Backbone:
């Protein structure tokens, strides 16, 4: 895993919008609990990767310190060899003086090599130090975001469930006829009125039939009266 990949992942996770992730959650509580687990696992992976990066930086710093120390050590040896050569040359031991001057040159070469290695490593160490600081900051942001999520868990679950309930209620309201909420009662009332009218019609029909029967009786009475008077007329004429 490269340093850029680690840093990008830490930055992305640190900027995660928790509320946006809940928008598509069918079960808010399960979603948040899973989010907490995933986030914790990601933090653990990032911590391990950052620890490796820090470890590599410490190795480079150690190598750099060793190069600096080696450069000083070889410089001291070169100085000591040069002084010894001067002492021998003053004493007339030229061959031995030349040998120590050669040793001084060898030490100076080693010093130069160590200085170059230390100088070459310094920009890399500076860059790695900057990366490590950014990674630490990203991890701190991730941990703060996780603390925030854990602290808001119950509140977010309640808000999400309340929003779902409200949406369900609004969906139910859409199915109600808001223009005429008593339309079903009106149709039932019309049915009752028709039944009442039908009953009145039967009542009137029954009443008219009874009147006809009484009228028939009256007609029979008139006929009997006529027959009786006719009989009386015939009896008087005799």
Residues:
């Amino acid at each position: 895993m490269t340093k850029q990949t680690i840093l990008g992942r830490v930055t992305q996770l640190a900027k995660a919008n928790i509320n946006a992730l809940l928008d598509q959650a069918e079960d808010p509580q399960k979603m948040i609990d899973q989010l907490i687990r995933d986030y914790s696992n990601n933090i653990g992976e990032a911590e391990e990767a950052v620890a490796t990066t820090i470890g590599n930086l410490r190795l480079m710093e150690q190598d750099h310190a060793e190069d600096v120390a080696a450069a000083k050590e070889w410089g001291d040896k070169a100085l000591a060899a040069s002084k010894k050569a001067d002492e021998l040359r003053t004493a007339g031991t030229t061959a031995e003086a030349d040998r120590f001057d050669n040793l001084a040159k060898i030490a100076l070469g080693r010093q130069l090599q160590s200085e170059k290695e230390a100088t070459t490593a310094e920009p890399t160490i500076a860059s790695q130090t900057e990366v490590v600081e950014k990674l630490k900051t990203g991890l701190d942001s991730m941990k703060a975001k996780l603390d925030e999520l854990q602290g808001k868990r119950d509140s977010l679950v309640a808000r999400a469930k309340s929003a779902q309930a409200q949406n369900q209620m609004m969906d139910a309201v859409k199915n109600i006829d808001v223009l005429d909420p008593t339309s079903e009662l009106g149709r039932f009332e019309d049915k009752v009125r028709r039944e009442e009218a039908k009953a009145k019609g039967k009542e009137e029909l029954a009443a008219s039939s009874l009147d006809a029967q009484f009228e028939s009786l009256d007609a029979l009475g008139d006929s009997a009266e006529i027959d009786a008077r006719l009989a009386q007329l015939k009896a008087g004429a005799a």
